Amino acid sequence: MVSAQGDDLAPFTAGSHIDVFLHDGLVRQYSLMSDPKVRNRYQIAVLLEDQSRGGSAFVHQSLRVGDVLEVSHPRNNFEIVEDATSHVFVAGGIGITPFISMAHHCIQNAIPVKLYYCARAPETTAFVDHLTRLFGKNMLLHYDGGDPSKSIDLTKLVASESNAQLYCCGPRGLMTALAEAVEQRGGSLITEHFNPVGSKSNDEAPQRGCFTVELSRSGVSIDVAEGQTIIEALKTANVDVETSCEAGVCGTCVVDYLEGEPIHNDVVLMPDEQKNSLALCVAGCKSKKLVLDL
Ligand code: FES
Questions:
Q1: pLDDT value for 196
Q2: Cα 248–199–150 angle (5° rounding)?
Q3: How far is the CA of 288 from the centre of ligand 1 (A)?
């Protein structure tokens, strides 16, 4: 991806993503996988999903070389912890993409880094040659053939990497299992989510309506009707809020709340952040009223 004007593109830090405006209001977030020092192009990778909600199907079937797309400035929800002495990346499938720009950063700064890359089979594993050049012997490939009983032993992984800062991006199951292993053993884990909330089971689906949101700065109260999200209610009341994924994934709509008991549903806020903040596009509410810092 290059600038239509031939200029340098906006700078980004390792682990960043961009919003890509595909067509008719369809926006998707993709990690930047190129070297952050390279300013004249962005590289993204898009896996054609069987259950595509339209984004990957559009990219694979309709986009052509030379087409012009609008993209956002890069944002980073998956930053490298600069004071960690070593980093361990755990990737599942297409979750490998943010780790490629992060590897460039670590290697350029002589920071020890290791990659565990989990996939179904060698023939469906992306970027292996490029990753081998970047990580050398510090890359471990694990193939499970799609059989959960053959998944990587995360308890062992966490035990053997106890001094490193851990990062994970991949399927929800991998990230949840690694988070549980880290919780049991102790350690620090940072995760990046790109699965839309709509892909969760029905039990986890966003809670919609019926409660009131109060905007603390104006004192205005807005009812969130049954079946509505907070974002939808705010837009109906002509309250302008920036959004992007509308799936609890990107963090664009995150705001602080001052009162009330939200049901979070997002995959972007860490538990301690959820004590003060919520994602307006997916949060529900246990209490009758939610006071927002808006
Ligand atoms: S718009 Fe992306 S998290 Fe709400």
A1: 45
A2: 115
A3: 23
Q: Measuring from each residue's beta carbon to the nearest atom of ligand 1, which residues come in under 6 Å?
A: 243-246, 248-253, 266, 268, 279, 281
Pocket test of ligand 1: the residue of 21, 229, 232, 253 to mutate, having most ligand atoms within 8 Å of its CB, is: 253
Asked if 45 and 22 touch (Cβ cutoff 8 Å), the reply is no
Stated pTM of the model: 0.71
Ligand 1: centre distance to CA 247 (Å)? 6
Residue nearest to atom 3 of ligand 1 (CA): 248
Q: What is the pLDDT of residues 136-171, one digit of tens each?
A: 999 999 999 988 889 999 999 999 998 999 999 988
266 alpha carbon – ligand 1 mean position (Å): 8
Closest atom of ligand 1 relative to the 248 alpha carbon: 3
- Domains plus CATH for the chain? 17-71 (2.40.30.10), 87-196 (3.40.50.80), 202-292 (3.10.20.30)
Question: 3-state SS of the chain?
Answer: CCCCCCCCCCCCCCCCEEEEEEECCEEEEEECCCCCCCCCCCCCCCCCCCCCCCHHHHHHHCCCCCCCCEECCCECCCCCCCCCCCEEEEEEHHHHHHHHHHHHHHHHCCCCEEEEEEECCHHHCCCHHHHHHHHHHHEEEEECCCCHHHCCCHHHHHHHCCCCEEEEECCHHHHHHHHHHHHHHCCCEEEECCCCHHHCCHHHCCCCCCEEEEECCCCCEEEECCCCCHHHHHHHCCCCCCCCCCCCCCCCCEEEEEECCEECCCCCCCCCHHHCEEECCCCEECCCEEEECC
At 176, list the tokens. 């949840």
Categorize the per-residue pLDDT at 7 as very low, low, confident or very high, splitting at 50, 70 and 90. very high
